[in-house]
UniProtKB/TrEMBL annotation:
Domain of life, source organism: Bacteria
Protein's recorded name: MOSC domain-containing protein
Pfam families the UniProt entry points to: MOSC
Residues of the signal peptide: none
GO function term, MF aspect, one: catalytic activity
Amino acid sequence: MSGTVQAVAASAIHGFSKPRLPSIRLLSGLGVAGDAHAGVTVKHRSRVARDPSQPNLRQLHLIAEETLQDLAAAGFHVAPGDLGENVTTRGLDLLALPRGARLHLGADAVAEVTGLRNPCHQLDDFRPGLMRALIGRGADGEVLLKAGIMAVVIAGGEVAAGDAIAVELPPEPHERLQRV
């Protein structure tokens, strides 16, 4: 499995959207250099309020460009970075990856998938109805979360639009992604 980095984004402040940048630097064990969510312990404000000592399993947020295209087809204009993601991908079914899959981004960076992004009310604050558009149902009635995936940074490096993404799957049995 392989794909491409379509866009990268980061923000030093806790806001919803992140501005696109020419490149970002991933820092091993921390996340994106200069991003408000970088760190060893959790940085998401609601999670910090509950327990600031939790490990940060949400150092890097990735979403597929194909998801943004699906949203556009449903009437929602959403550009890369708008949903707070650090990396917008193309050609990878991110939501189908198992927990522990490693994403090799560009020449040096490696991120390990920890789980699904949990959609929250801020999506509707950004665009009314967006949260519902990012939560679906599978054929078996199972809830499908489509707001991207989260990862931790295993190896640092520079990542930019156009960089290749290679997927390294963990040993089987594979564990389905859950909310983190």
